[in-house]
Design goal:
By secondary structure, this protein is an alpha/beta fold. It contains 14 helices and 14 strands. The longest helix is centred in the N-terminal third of the chain and has 48 residues. The chain starts with 5 loop residues before the first strand and ends in a 21-residue tail after the last helix.
Amino acid sequence: MNNFNYYSNRSSGGSWWIRIGKIAGGGNGPEAVESIRKTMFCVFLPFAIAMGATGLGLYATKKWIDKRFKDDNNRDTGDDDNSQNLSPIDEEKRAKEEDRRVKNHICEILGLLNPAPPKPTPLNSNIEDCSGTYKPLPLVGTLIKIGDRVILVGPPGSGKSALSWQLAITIALGKSPEFMPPNSEHASPQKVYIYDGELDDDDIKQRYGQQKYSDNLYRCSASKFRTVFYLLQHIYDITVGLDGDATFILDNLYAIMPTMTSEETRTFLDGLDSIQRKALDKGYRITIIIVTHSQKDVNGIPRMKDVAGSAHISRFAKSELSLAALPGDNNQVALITNKKRYSNKKDAFIIELQDTDYLHFKFVKKVSNSEIDNLFKCWVQGDDSADEGTRSDVENDDLTQRMQKLRDQNLSDREIGKRTGVSAPTVRNKIGSNGKGHHNGGRGAHKHFKKP
């Protein structure tokens, strides 16, 4: 108790002071001042130092914890403040790691890497819901049905993009397109997603900026993807949010994926098939329209054999459509059905490109396949007699003048024939050859060599 004594006294001046051990306070006079000084140095100053040290410790601990968790999160996501300072090698490594992640993810969802074996089911269970003859539901007249897989092929400049956009616009509206015969059957309006690898924004404004379109129509512009698996992931993510039928148009396949190999083409098409099946399990149908180029030197009607990766594409397709410019006409083209898995009837139409309101095709007439074949026969086979027999003298004179004007442009026999709708031999017979053979600026005229 000697170290802790409590004293209280009252000075003669009427002031009070108090002491608790070495700590004292209150009152006036020298003793009071001394007690206050001791209190400051013995109590408040150590207390302030202790509080400051505690605050600094808590701040340092918080900063360390924040940095630790942020570093862990950056390692998980591959995103940090220094991502822009990565070397090209590090960026390529990160990109490849992301490629593998996307590939494994979408392949697992669609069952592409380790597909499950098919489960045998009785035929009767597959057709028990059918009553009578099953008729596919039309999407675009007799050309495309709901849930179809369509390949549209044609040489460069034949109007494939214009036809693709016309299909997208009319399907989104739920009406028959103008390039089909009047009153052709069609489906109700549905969402349409067109992956546009051909047209830039200025092209779109020029071709389609004169009017408004259905809110069901969506454009994925500048549609280029690092791998086919990113594209599959993008399409799949859209289908997951759908609640009804929809159409996907890819214009064109190799503009969107220019480096796609034959094996990647097969994998991609298998993925589209899986997406369609998963949508069907949910009660709605996905229609897929793929646009692709034929080879540039194809004359007449392009077929699937004229397309890169044709074996995989033909196996995937349920319908194949071809576009071919009519001989001697820059605006009219033939639209031909090469393949229609659900019908033996093949369609052939003559359609004409117009630029009123928006760039589109107008129906001219429906023709038979034999008429189409005959129309292109002279051009493809070089039947001079047929060329001569189908033209009047006036037409022949006009044709010769057109040929000569093209010859003045130093074009080859074959190029002149393509532009005038005749065969290369006919060009040589009428105006002679310029010695450039089949190609403008290409190899010279054919030479015949005798075997030694």
